[in-house]
Amino acid sequence: MFSSFKVKVKMQKQNTDVHGIKYRSGLHCTARVLQTEGVKGLYRGATSSFLGVAFESSLLFGIYSQIKQSLEGGLQSGKPQSSVIIPSAAIGGGIISFVLCPSELVKCRMQVLGTDSLVPKSSRYNGPLDCALKTFKTEGVTGIFRGGFTTLLRESIGNAVFFSTYESVRYYMHLQLKDASSNQNNLTDVGVGIMSGGLSGIAFWSAVLPFDVAKTIIQTAPDRNSTRNPFQILKSIYRRSGLKGCYTGLGPTIVRAFPANAAAIVTWELAVKILGVKRE
Known about the structure:
By secondary structure, this protein is mainly α. The protein has one domain (2-274): Mitochondrial carrier domain (Mitochondrial carrier fold, Alpha/alpha barrel), CATH 1.50.40. The chain contains 9 helices and no strands. It has helices at 2-15, 26-42, 46-72, 82-112, 128-144, 148-180, 186-220, 230-246, 250-274. The longest helix is centred in the C-terminal third of the chain and has 35 residues, at 186-220. One of its GO terms (molecular function) is L-ornithine transmembrane transporter activity.
């Protein structure tokens, strides 16, 4: 699934450039990467991403659950409450953006600048650690957190959409299954987890992919003084390429979103059940 991230980032960087469309589709981009960089090229920058995602996911679900429980005051009505879910998810997303920003910056720079033949060899990266150190040395702490505001917007808005969709789909699916049959087993729970998680992942990226496009451009811009304003960047892309440009990389992102988030939700719900945490 990481290879789809690689394709997404390459498409976002190259297809929104002033020089025009470089990749016709996600499949075309994948073929070009395989041709020029080999299979290894599809997984360039994976280390930092895996570490960041693993820590971010556990942190996000933990923060969301705790804030949601506090806002509910111990009283669970059963039916999802937007007034509880949205702030819980938005706060959780905002917090984890500080973890995601540096790891995604390293990942994006490794994927876009690390192998670019137009970039001088002295500016290329030997690995994630080398990328992080060079960024810190040349740009300082602000360089490591370049694109932080855009990441915060993506994560706070995106997770509000994600958990609202998840809680609603989960609630209504269980309600329908309860009415249809009283025999709800572990297999049923897994099925609900797959559907609610997969649909939530699609909802997340459909809502905030333009911010992700802007973040990729901000984090991989060679000019240190280039704008970090995501709205200014998106306005420029929209002027050149329309709404389609703002959603560059949607195909490979959606392909990854359903299975990845379905697996995340099923794993989370299994962990909750094993730990004996009560849910409505």
